[in-house]
Amino acid sequence: MYNFNFHSPGTLDEAINLYNNSEDPKFLAGGMTLLASMKQRLISPSDLIDLRNISNLSEVSLNDKVLKIGSLCSHFKLSRNEIINDKIKNLAKLADGIGDPAVRKMGTIGGSIANSDPAADWPAAILALKSQIITNSRIISNKDFFTGMFETLLEDNEIITSIEIEIPDYFNYKKLPNPASRYAIVGVAIAKYGNNVNVAISGASHTPFIAETISDYLSNNFSNDFPEKTIAKDDLNEDIHASAEYRVNLIDVLTKQIINES
After folding, report:
1. Do 23 and 74 belong together in one domain?
2. How many separate domains does the chain show?
3. In terms of domains, do 37 and 100 share one?
4. Distances 138 to 122, 132, 160, 161, 215 between C-alpha atoms, Å
5. Which single residue of 19, 116, 158, 209 has CA 20 to 30 Å from 145?
6. Are residues 76 and 204 in the same domain?
7. Residues 83, 212: one domain?
8. 58-76, pLDDT tens digit by residue?
9. Is 136 in contact with 158 (CB distance < 8 Å)?
10. What is the CATH classification number for the domain harbouring 15?
């Protein structure tokens, strides 16, 4: 590691001011990716601005049918939260399947989606569910948020404050995890609102995406007899973990498993 300045602001305004007045700053949430990147000297920020003392970013609330999750809620906290377990139980199950206990204790939902790792679990859920990302300056639609591998619509000095999710009629997420990292080789999230079904995929491509053909079919016929291999393998990753063809089959298998459990 190398020398850097560490800041622990108590408010959003203080955090933004510190960022704007630093040479090459980074916001710190859980630090699961950021600190590992620093240790490997892939990045070398001049200042780390720790957001964990901003208390109102760690709350979960329910207003009518809208769940509001503070961006600094840890995966562990969300897996145990009574509101989430009551209203979207499989979202709590998703949180409980992330990484190992240390990662779940420290990692945050806001940090995960801001990092936009294509194999992370939260992005698929956020895309499938009717949701929006609230920042210190605006509201961003879930469909617009993820723009590329490790890229989002966020500005450099913008902070996610919360994620708002409309409670679905049904939600589930399944993945084939990498046995070492627990990241998704393929992850499938399905959210159902009346006759409207969204199927979102993580791990299979450079960015999480909506499987439009499967979503449209399931919106008209929510059963596991949907056409298989509707996603072109040319659009999917091919790496040491799985071939593109294998990922195509995994998407079909995981989708059917989710439907069978509905």
Report:
1. no
2. 2
3. no
4. 21, 10, 9, 10, 28
5. 19
6. yes
7. yes
8. 999 999 999 999 999 999 9
9. yes
10. 3.30.43.10
User: DSSP assignment, residue 167?
Assistant: P
Residues 61 and 19 in one domain: no
**CATH number, domain at 154?**
3.30.465.10
Average pLDDT over every residue of 183-189: 96
In contact, 125 and 94? CB cutoff 8 Å: yes
- Both 12 and 102 in one domain: the answer is no
**Exposed / middle / buried, residue 216 (Cβ in 10 Å: 0-12, 13-18, 19+):** middle
> What are the start-end ranges of the E strands in the chain?
5-7, 25-28, 47-50, 60-63, 66-70, 131-135, 139-141, 146-148, 151-152, 160-166, 170-177, 184-193, 196-202, 209-210
Task: Write out pLDDT tens, residues 22-50.
Answer: 999 999 998 888 888 888 888 899 999 99
pLDDT digit string (tens) for 201-258? 999 999 999 999 999 999 999 998 877 778 888 889 899 999 999 999 999 999 999 9
| Closest listed residue to residue 119, CA positions, set 190, 205, 191, 231 | 205
Q: For residue 89, give its domain range.
A: 55-261
pLDDT at 225: 84
Distance CA 150, CA 145 (A): 11
DSSP 33-102: THHHHHHTTS---SEEEE-TT-GGGS-EEEETTEEEEETT-BHHHHHH-HHHHHH-HHHHHHHHTSS-HH
Which two structure tokens, joined as six digits, stand for 38?
A: 């620093």
* 3-class secondary-structure state, position 2: coil
Residue that the structure tokens 């999750």 belong to = 69
Mark whether 40 and 76 lie in a shared domain. Answer: no
Residue range 119-134: mean pLDDT, rounded:
97
What is the average pLDDT across 122-145?
A: 97
Residues 26 and 144 both lie in one domain: no
- pTM of the entire predicted model: 0.93
Q: Please give the average per-residue pLDDT across 85-110, as a whole number.
A: 96
